Amino acid sequence: MEILKKYLSMSENQETLITxxxxxxxxxxxxxxxxxxxxxxxxxxxxxxxxKINNRLYNFINIISAELELEKTVNSIxxxxxxxxxxxxxxxxxxxxxxxxxxxxxxKMDNQFCIDYILDFFYNFDxxxxxxxxxxxxYLSKSNKNKEKLIDSSKNTNESxxxxxxxxxxxxxxxxxxxxxxxxxxxxxxxxxxxIKKSIIIHDKFLSKEEIYLYYENDFYLKNMEELEKRxxxxxxxxxxxxxxxxxxLKVEIKEAIEQYLIKELYIEAHKLEKLKLCIEHECFNFKxxxxxxxxxDDVADxxxxxxxxxxxxxxx
Length: 317
Hints:
Layout: E1 17-26, H1 27-41, H2 47-65, E2 73-80, E3 84-88, H3 91-99, E4 105-110, H4 115-123, E5 128-134, E6 137-143, E7 148-154, H5 159-172, E8 179-184, H6 186-190, E9 199-202, E10 204-205, H7 209-234, E11 245-246, H8 250-259, E12 263-269, H9 273-279, E13 288-292, H10 300-308, E14 311-315
Parallel strand pairs: 5-8, 8-9, 12-13
Antiparallel strand pairs: 1-2, 1-4, 2-3, 5-6, 6-7, 8-10, 11-14, 12-14
């Protein structure tokens, strides 16, 4: 899928770039689906947007219809602009789509292609583990920003069962990060959070996948801020070798230090990492990256972004 990255920066003024993902669908079914999409496109009020989307969907249907084997199964990603790019899904990618219940036909119209979303869904297997409790029932799941999977469920939930789930997460899944327990249950409100290491209990509501990710993300950035604060405090220590610190602009001082393989650690404002990846060769990324994001005004990250441009490198020596 690396080839798709070349279309990351492609954009149009309106939501007229079309991302399509199809797997385990016959051509005859695909044609029927997109004929309906074409009918919906006729109702678009903006004339230019309507024209582009109509043309692109129409051309796509014609290309698909040209296949003689209507029972043939399609497993591909299509990017529709003035031309059509097709990426054929590999066996492991199809397996991932099946395992995480991805829609068999996915269509997104936007001013950019959904490349980040695609790469994250198919190749991000860093999961957050959560336990949902509804009265006496419990559900153990793993999820990340774009996918979710139920691992186990139980009709009889007690503290021992929660302990089993946590032991499974820690030992079998080798997961050391935050575990989130959530739901509506008298039992959940009585759990002692001190006995459940690296976890957070939300006992008054069911959390969505997106809310679970937000809790995890906040915890992640808080930990990174702790590391950042230690480094910044060292700047005021008279015994600190200030020559080990690199500050400056992303594409000047930081880029130069990375290309010279000088950097051991890089503290960087989260949204700047993708910009950095666009101007640095992949093989140069052989150092620890600590992503920084402000969660509230005047926190450590906020001041770091204001005072140091959200960039700080630490040299090896």
